[in-house]
Amino acid sequence: GGEDSLNQLSLSLALLQPVGSSTDLGLAGSYYGYDQDPAVAVFFTARANVAAGDSLGGGFPLAPVRWSISPSLTQRFGGWTLAPWYQYLSYASSIGQAHVAGLRVSWRIDPSWTVWVTGSAQWDLLADPTSSTPDTTGSSHVVSGRVALGFRASF
């Protein structure tokens, strides 16, 4: 890419440990490398955010992630499955950090149909982009969330 692009390489590792016949514990982690400082990439600058109308809910990430870690639990109760999870994100270039908590609930209606709902809430703690020393003191908080419904069918 050119000077207005940001190339990313990610490395991830996930572990899943069954605990009994109906419980799984998981731990996932990722590290993201970039070909230039993500803080100067066009979209993630304060100027680009203003040009986008300060719309943080437009479906774009608030900042490029440097690394993340996510523990999870999956518990099955007959045809029901509950899967709470948590994720900690550290944004690149000392931009800030985020905490995400979520829950997925699924119901296996029969062997060929499963329906599910999932939701999450995210709390971002972002450094002040006008500050000459990036740190999270005096930063802004952004709270967001999402909910999704879905199904899986086998024919």
Model description:
By secondary structure, the chain is mainly beta. The chain has one helix spanning 46-51; strands at 8-18, 23-34, 65-77, 80-91, 96-110, 113-126, 140-153. The protein has a seven-stranded antiparallel β-sheet, with no helix packed on it. Strand 4 (80-91) and strand 5 form a beta hairpin. The radius of gyration is 19 Å and the shape is elongated. Residues 50-59 have low confidence and may be disordered.
Topology:
Blueprint: E1 8-18, E2 23-34, H1 46-51, E3 65-77, E4 80-91, E5 96-110, E6 113-126, E7 140-153
Antiparallel strand pairs: 1-2, 2-3, 3-4, 4-5, 5-6, 6-7
In short:
The chain has 155 residues and is mostly beta strands. 4% of the residues lie in helices and 59% in strands.
Question: Keyphrases for this structure?
Answer:
155 residues; mainly beta; 7-stranded antiparallel beta sheet
Q: Could you tell me the mean pLDDT? A: 83
Helix/strand-derived category reads mainly beta
Strand order of the largest sheet: 1-2-3-4-5-6-7
Beta strand count = 7
